[in-house]
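Known limitations

Files may contain more than one protein. Parsers should not assume a single record per file. Below, a two-record file is shown to illustrate correct handling: read the sequence, read the token line, then continue until end of file.
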Amino acid sequence: MHRGFHVLQGYRALGWAAALVTLSSTSGCFTIDWGSYRVGDGGVGGGGEPCNNAGVTGRCEVIPEGWTLVRATVVGDPSTPAGTCSDASPQTVYFTQPGGQSTCSPCKCSLAPGATCSAPELTCSYMSVNCAGADSISQVDASGCLTLSGVPLAQSNPSGSCKLTAPGKVIAATCDVTQATATNPPLWGGAAVVCNVNAVPAGCGTGALCVDEGPSADGAACILRAGTDPCPAGWGTSITAFTGGDDHRGCSACSCVITCVGGGYIVYDNETCMVTDPPVSVMSNSCTAVPNLFDAGKASVAVSLAKAQFSTCDGGQPQGQVDGTGPVQICCK
């Protein structure tokens, strides 16, 4: 006697394929013959299996928890207005590719009236012909005659030397500055137009929806989630988008740098910058001999101030960026 029957067992919830089992018995001895039965062939699908949603053939797609199934189209024009999806629902436009840095016009600087400098620093050695030692160090902010102190009392002194040891100092740094002008690229380089998908399980397993495989005017099948989470496995095409953004681009402030040039001293052998013995001009950082002037306890110098000079015009560099707000991660197949 031969007995045979078929047992169809579905283990879809555990992700197992169903099996077709044939049991037969001859003379009381049972044998088991395992056939194959593909998940989705009329059974309960879960990922990639054919399905049917309201008469439309599709595939079961497992939608990761926390993600929403959408259709998305990437466009190059960020000003694309939101339209209507194929099911008459409104589109949502997200922005992509934050704009690049500003282009800055050059800074413009010029010396303004009122920019002034002190005299350079003067160092003198009363008893040395090679500027050894520093018996007097002077640096003043005003021109005129300056009496030196500590001059030797001897009636005659063939020694003495001076040199400039530091440039003049800026007293008033007045400068006319024209700030750089920023020219910004567009705020965004593109956009993603998104439509929600009204998909249902339609025989798919837990966590899966029946997604139409055919081309759609609404774009490719994707998943969407607010935030910056990486795309789940199987959804490897990433579109980083934003609901808006703050534009912090611009140019750094311009400023001018003023330096002091020139200036010097004329050394006299009395207290009032009057000529008795021939005076000596000290106008450089080279050591200058000043014989027969530092004696009788009296000496003075006539001061010539340094002149303010425009040096550099700094700043006007691109700075800042477009900071996206409301980040959204869109992941497509």
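...continuing to the second record:
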Amino acid sequence: MIDERRIRQLIDSAAQSSASGRGQDAEQFLRQAEAEAPWHPLVLNEAARRMLLADNPAGACELLEQAVKSAPTQPSLWLNLAASLRGLKRPADELAALDKVLAIEPRNLRALLQKASLHELLGKPRAAAAGYRNALQMIPAGAEMPPAMRPVLEQAERAVATNNRELETFLEERLRDLRVRYADAPLNRFERCLATLLQKQPIYRQRPSFMHFPQLPAIEFYERKEFPWLDSIEAASDAIRAELLDVLADGPRMLEPYVAHPQGVPSERWRDLNHSRRWGVYFLWKEGVPYQDHLARCPRTVAALEAWPRWDVPNCGATAVFSILDAKTRIPLSTGSVRLQADCVFAIRGIGSCKLKLGVEKRDADNFAYAMALGPGVASHADFKCLLEPMPRLAWLDGWIARPKAIESRA
């Protein structure tokens, strides 16, 4: 009677010895397994694997055809059989063996890659690209792949990229007349759809760091028309600028660091800005709490903000703050904490310039509202990247508001 456990141990030992370069030990373990159970599927599979390494696909195929008869649900047997059939140039049988693997393990990466490669050999580039694309999408971001697989993955990426370029050319030829016909129509969503299809842009999903409120639309920058009350703030821009310059004239002591994580809190992302006035702020309201001295010093700014639809939630909102970023200071990738809020930015002209990037959209600093809870930041805690690139010194008036109902209703 065959001792299954012992045979598995012998085969595992043979494979480990072979992988670590101890060929003589591997041979000894395999010979012992063959002596005890010469027709065991694991023994046949290991012997066949060694034949494949020795460029003997015919001998490997013979052993593996016997092995799959006694163990038809073992995907490794079918996968090695497919490899031997590739060497024998029997594509129809290879495809059948790969389909057997995928029927047992639909997410078997090696089988998906080999099937796509087989489609390439058969002159079916679109089928190959589709297969490669599925396989690549299964690999987690940042995963470290074995060195032996890197050439295969690089070929997969090339095949997908080539197919995407050909698809783009095909679509653009057929869209040319439509683009002319609808030249004045807002096509941003369609263009984003097309860019995502062609893998030119990733898909960003909302992942606030604290509270996710479902079924709100994933919009990076809101349409300016959604915020008619910005007009009154823009009309007061000279007065707002003058009051901020008056505050700044008293020196850095007037500002507090925007980033102020206590000791012991993991904050590697904010290490350079933590407790630093390189990104300083002057609060008017902070999470619903008024800074009375600051309000008294900036009366015209406060008057301009009367039209601002405040988010009146005790200990959460509203917040309005002058935000000042020193020259050549970059805010790292980050995200907001609550998906219910939008961030409204009022650029104070004449005090620096910057660009704000959220997801795939990048805008010059101006007056707009954006969803800071969108963004992939670091360690997949976010989805839309937020990046400020200032020059030289930058100042803006920032505030949090609840998302407009007109926007929420489109979720």
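Parsers that stop after the first record will miss the second one. For reference, the second record is described as follows. The domain at 224-408 is CATH 2.60.120.330 (Jelly Rolls).
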